[in-house]
Structures are given as C-alpha cells and as structure tokens.
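Final report, Chapter 2: Outcomes

The project's central promise was a pipeline that accepts a single protein chain and returns its three-dimensional structure in a standardized token representation, suitable for archiving and comparison. That pipeline is now operational. To close this chapter, we reproduce one record exactly as it appears in the project archive, with the input sequence first and the structure output second.
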Amino acid sequence: MANRLKDATSPYLLQHADNPVDWWPWCDEAFAEARRRDVPVLLSVGYAACHWCHVMAHESFEDPATAALLNSRTVAIKVDREERPDVDAVYMAATQAMTGQGGWPMTVFMTPDRDPFYCGTYFPREQFTRLVEAVWRTWQQDRGGVTGQAKRISAALAANAAALAGLGAGASADADGWQERLTRAAGEAVTALEGDYDPDDGGFGGAPKFPPSMVLEFLLRHHERAGSEAALRMAEHTCGAMARGGMYDQLGGGFARYSVDAEWVVPHFEKMLYDNALLARVYAHLWRRTGSELARRVSEETCDWMIRELHTPEGGLAASLDADSEGEEGRFYVWTPAELREILGADDAGFAMAAFGVTESGTFEHGSSVLQRREEPDGRERFDRIRGVLFAAREGRARPARDDKVVAAWNGLAIAALAEAGLLLDRGEFTAAALGAAELLAAVHLSGDRLVRTSRDGVPGGSAGLLEDYACVAAGLLALSGVTGQARWVGLAGRLLDTVLTAFGDGEGGFCDTAGDGERLIFRPADPADNATPSGTFAAADALLSYSALTGSRRHRDAAGGALRALPDIAGRYPRAAGTGLAVAEAMLSGPAEIAITGDLSDPRTQDLLRTALHVAPPGAVLAAGHGTGAPDAPVPLLAGRGLVNGAPAAYVCRQFTCQAPVTSPSELRRVAEAAIR
C-alpha cells in the first residue's frame, strides 16, 4: 500500500511511495505527529540520481523488518534535496559539524522541535537498525540530555550561520578602495588557484575531482580583463582534460557529476542539468576567445544532449539522469572489448579500442571501460562512423531513469547557456529551447511576483522559490532578451529582482537564501559561497549588475555591490568557492560594457552585428537588441535614443549609458569591442 508520498510531485519522493516505511513529506503535521506519539524524527534526504540513496533504499527502506522498526520508533520524513535545498542546507550543516563530512543520503535524527541530535550519511542495514535501536533507547532513558544537546546544537548552528552571513558586513561598493579591493581579490585568487592546480591533469586538488565550472568562467573573464596567461592556461587545460576523459560522454555528449579519480577517467555517472548548463556556457566562451574546435564541439554536443535527453513535453528541462541502469552504476555507458567486437567486427573494434581507451582489463568494473578520447584518432571519417554505430547500439540498452521535475534555478542556467550558444554557434534550435523553458517558467512557476521552485508535468510543486531560483532565472531571462531582442524578458527579470530586494534582504545590504516571510527553520540559511551551483548571493549579484547595466538603475547596481560584500573574505580563504562572485567582480571591474544593437531582428545585418557583439563582448557585457527611438513597444532603456545609422542597423558600445560612436559593420564592432576589453 502506498504511503503519504504517493501524491508528491518529486520523482525522488515517488520512488519511495511504495516503501513499507510510513514516510511523511516535510510538513508541520509530521512534527506534530512525532510530538503526539512522543518519538524522535528521522529525516532522510537524497535525490533521484543519487547512487547510494538507491542502495540504502533497497537495503533498508524496502525491507519490511527495518521499516517496521522505523515505523514504531520514529516519525520518518523523506526530503528531496533538490526540491528543498533550504532544508538540506540546514541539516547538512549539522551533519558536517557533527561528523566532519557530509553527503547523500543524509540521515538525521531530531526532536519534534526540529533540533538535530545525531547525524550521518549512508548506513548499511545492520548498522542502521542498531543505530535506530540505540537512538530509541537513549530517547527513552535520557530525554533531557538528548533535547538539551539538540538545543545547544541548533543554537551553535544558528550562530555559525549568522557569522557566515555577516562576512564582509559594512563593505560597500561606494566605499573608497572598493574597486581596488576587488581587483586585488581577483589577482590573489588566481595566485591561490595556481597553488591548488593539478599541472598534469588539470582541475584543482585531488580525487574526487568536480568540474570547476564557475571558477573556469572567472578565469576566462580574468584573462580577458587582465591579460593573465596563467588564468587562460588553467582554464584551457582543465577544459581539454575534462572533455577528453571519461567524465564527458564521448558518444552522446554531456558531463557526469564528477570524476572519482584525479585523471578524469572514471565518473560518478549521474548527469545533472546544472553541470551541463554551466559547462556548455564555459566551453562556448572558451571557443569564442581561443577558437578551440574542441571547445566548440563540446559546447554544441552538450547543448544537443540537454535538449535530447532532458527536454520535457511542457518545454522545460528535466533535473537529471540517474547513475544506475539495470541495477548497476554506469551500465549504460561502459563497454567491454567483447561488446565492441560483437557490434563492430574485429577490425573496427580494434580501432575503437585504441581511439576510446578500451582495454582488455578494463578501466571500470567487471572488465568494462569508460570511453575516453585522449588523442584525435587517425581517420576522422572512420571514427565518426564508428562513433555513430556505437551510439545507435547504446540506444538499445536499458536507459538510466530520468528525474523529470523542472527546477527553476537550473532552467535559468540552461536558458542562458542555450540562448548564447544558439547565437554564437548559429544553432537556432538552442535558442528555441531557451525560449520554451522561459515560457514554461513564466506560465507555471511564476504567480504574481513569487516563484515556485519546481514543477512536474506542467504542475507547480509546493516549494517556494529560493534566492538562487530568482537570481538564476532573472540572469537567464536577461541573457535571453539580449539574444532574441524580446524586451518582455527584461521586464520579467525586473519583477523577480524586485522580489529579491524586498523579500530576501538580510537588512544589512546582503541576502539570505530564503524569503523573510517563508517557512521558519532552526536558522535562516544565508551561505554566500558557491557549491555545486552558484550561490544565491553571487547569482543575485550577477543578475542585479546585468539589470542595472540594461536599465541604468543605480539601486540595482548598489545591491549587486552589497551581494559581493563577502567576496574578498571567501576568495581569500577558498577561491574555489568564489568563482561566481569573482566572475561578477570581473564584470563590475570591466564596467560592465553595454552593447546595444538597433535594427530589425529579421534583418541579416542585425543578426551579424548581434552575433559579433556576443563573440567579442568584454567580461560580463550585457546585450540589448531591437528597435531604438520610436519603437511601438517600450524599449529596453539601453536602446532608448539609439537609432539606425543612415537607415542601417547599428551597434553602440557603452559604459554606464555613455556610448561610443555607433558602427554599422561587424569588423568595426569587433575593433571597438576588442578595444573595450583592454
């Protein structure tokens, strides 16, 4: 019999709807039930593509005896961390504080007042059942000690969160020396990153290695503004190493979550929308600066993968693909020599083994290999033919499950990537996909001036949008408007940013991750540092700065500066967690430049100017396209008064609405814009 999760919109929760565990969703009623029964609460947090979440579910949550123990000793709550990252952040802080590490599934025991007292991650079934019994005995025998300890833990977590939120308090973008402080922070971050850099295999630190997407964007922008060859070298080498290794899907495109080794050979096979959206944009930016054909191919293939594998019937992009299929991690992606011989024949199989690094002993489990592409093979036509045959054969395998919920923030990241790649690479279908996702967010996720975080099958979920949702969606819409010339997206972004300013402020110029009128947790999360995705605070700085550049709003520019107040502290301590903020700082130090393209968007001359503008744009530059003076619709303010030149489409390169003389040819625009970089 299905439990209370049967009505959830989260695919992860629905995976547990038939468990014998009497699961509750996160809700006030669950804690009231724990209080009524006088039992502790078990909080289990995971996500649909999480391999070890599946393992613990099969071992424990699907086991009748373990479920009976949980049902009698606890009120069990299941949370999708992608749907409720605020809940995840609060109790991950507790888990890391108590154990020194974190991960998923996250397992937390807490009081009915939501105060945690024991935390961990994955537990094998026997260990887990012993733990549940031990928690129950302690709950029965030392209630005062448990609740007292839990209250102290919550108080300490709240104090730590307040200290983190207060980083940089008092800093102001108007203060003397602020520009110099940002410049110094960027330069010092590059030096620190060099010290953490892997000169052999690219990336930072050792195994496991995650794609440093936001740091790569910063490094590219820093190179453009400051001419740092070290920054470009780290970005280019890392992008090349990731693209040639096993973390990149050499047949179908798209990146896995991370590499378990330092050489990018064996991935953790789940594929996330946010990783691929961020990386598609980074590789497009690398190509536009260096002309790297590898970067162009990877950006294009990654966008193709997002549309092919994650596009939903409603127009959005789904959250992720699972790591597992047929009960095995990576089964869909790996190959044995015997499989290659069966599909290709002996001669082509030998060629494929050499080209893709498939060995008789294997690079993964059970003699299988993850495909790599360390060198460009001789015989490109043969390689492309074999690659196509293997891709078609793989399509016949059992596919990894898809988490088809639409997450607002991640779709915002994808909108920006697809819109820019569509224009840069002349792939109109990418831009069309970006427009479809934006339309879905506007129609389904937005109600008044508030966003919901998720939807599924065109039905909005019940979780309120967080700061990262408002910020990433606003930034994506601003990028989309610049590419398409549709001014309405700027207006919608402005509405979202108004909510950011009124609902998410911390009262001291910074921002919290949850709205001030939202659900009260044991503390209000406000982490300004990047994690797997851009921090809400730094993403807000990005959107606010871009909006101010398009509209001339000083209020939004000041708010962007406030959102960066913690950047020097974070970049100084751990620059790998400050990539987004550092990238925004590069844009602020560069102006940012404003490029207005006036003309009919159906005119090929206008499109040539627009494509050139994006290709040569300085760090963080904003684009506005469409009719200027006399347009029937209210233009983006940057376009106001920017007319045609002798009846021809024109480009204006500006800073703070002060523009250079307009130009009418791509070559002139390239010259003017490249001068602006310097």
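Archive annotation: Residues 628 and 642 are 5 Å apart (CA to CA).
This record, like all others produced under the grant, will remain available to the consortium after the project formally closes.
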